[in-house]
Amino acid sequence: MTKLKLGVLGSGKGSNFVAIQDSILRGELEAEIKVVISDHATAGILERAKAYGIPARALPPSQFKTKLEPEIELELVRLLKSYEVEWVILAGYMRVVKKPLLEAYPHRILNIHPSLLPAFKGLEAWKQALLAGVSEAGCTVHEVNEGVDEGEILGQMRVPVEKGDSAESLHARIQKAEHLLFTEILVKISKNNLRINS
Ligand code: GRF
């Protein structure tokens, strides 16, 4: 059993962060969240981290929406290293990860995406699924590489698309699955039951 030292990055409300932290507190996941970092100073995830007594840090504002300037990403790497983070968990982090972070944490960055990849990469994947008329949706945890929503798939969870689903109702169902799946994958990693390249 390895105690995972996690750094969580998020841009939004942080429900995946909460699910992971709660599973640690229940003793189901052998891990510690060393720091939560957001690209938005007012993101809900930072407030939620503070409520658990976990260090919460915001990155300096970026002039881009979908990526960080290399110097800000280097600052992010410095922050993660200063908290001795070994695994970087992207939990609703809405920026494409570039070289500074990828090179600092090879095979140690995981993302959750709200679709059954490789289907529906990109933004609001649950809306894409609804529009496509599929009968099943879900979520995927995968390693992060230089592509968008690419990288080796580590696990998936399926949910049905129900008659009369709205974008909101489908997203809510997918999010419940996300919370279970992310924890499940991290438990497997901590128990050395999931081989990830080193
Ligand atoms: C999730 O649906 C995740 O799949 C997507 O962004 C959302 C984050 O939700 N990438 P939360 O901030 O964890 O509540």
Describe what you observe in this structure.
The chain is an alpha/beta fold. It has a single domain (4-190), classed as Formyl transferase, N-terminal domain (Rossmann fold), CATH 3.40.50. Helices cover 35% and strands 21% of the residues. A seven-stranded mixed beta sheet has the order 3-2-1-4-5-6-7. Helix 1 packs parallel to helix 6. It binds 5-O-phosphono-beta-D-ribofuranosylamine. 5-O-phosphono-beta-D-ribofuranosylamine binds at residues 10, 12-16, 45, 91-92, 112-114, 175, 178. 5-O-phosphono-beta-D-ribofuranosylamine (GRF) is lined by residues 10, 12-16, 45, 91-92, 112-114, 175, 178.
Q: What is the fold's blueprint, element by element?
A:
Elements: E1 4-9, H1 15-25, E2 31-38, H2 44-51, E3 56-58, H3 70-82, E4 87-90, H4 99-104, E5 109-113, H5 125-132, E6 136-143, E7 153-160, H6 167-190
Parallel strand pairs: 1-2, 1-4, 2-3, 4-5
Antiparallel strand pairs: 5-6, 6-7
Helix pairs in contact: 1-6
Unreliable runs: none
Q: What are the distinct ligands in this entry?
A: 5-O-phosphono-beta-D-ribofuranosylamine
Reported by name, the CATH topology is Rossmann fold
Main sheet specs = 7 strands, mixed
Number of strands: 7
- Please state the structural category: alpha/beta
Strand ordering within the main sheet? 3-2-1-4-5-6-7
Strand content: 15-25%
- Please state the overall shape, judged from the principal axes of the Cα atoms: globular
Calculate Rg over CA atoms: 16 Å
Overall number of structural domains: 1
User: What's the N-to-C terminus distance?
Assistant: 17 Å
- Helix content class: 25-40%
Under CATH at level 1, the class stands as Alpha Beta
**Average pLDDT, to the nearest integer?**
96
Q: Output the CATH homologous superfamily.
A: Formyl transferase, N-terminal domain
Q: What count of helical segments does DSSP give?
A: 6
Please state the second-level CATH architecture. Answer: 3-Layer(aba) Sandwich
- Element-by-element helix/strand order: EHEHEHEHEHEEH
